[in-house]
Amino acid sequence: MKAFLALFALIVVVAGQGQINFNGIGQIRGFACSTAASFTTSIDGTTTTARCTDNGADPSVRCPGCCRSVALAAGRSADNAAGFPSTNGRSCVCCIR
């Protein structure tokens, strides 16, 4: 799973130019957290949107790597992002500074 997350983050960096959605807006200012974090990128020539909260996905597994990918897509360092399951156990909370 760690290898998949590392590959996913690498694809985001290589694809480079994608759109992000963070709390309904396309920009992250200062420090912010959201359960609606996502980004759009091209994977193997196909445009796709990755959502950090996704039905059927285990947020404890999906959140950390996805939130780091959102930060990379926003032009931030992955070290400036954290992801964790919300109290409902189904949503992913992404925090980025």
Automatic annotation (TrEMBL):
Q: Report the domain of life of the source organism.
A: Eukaryota
The signal sequence is 1-16
Identify the keywords attached in UniProt to this record, alphabetized.
Signal
Q: What is this protein called?
A: Uncharacterized protein
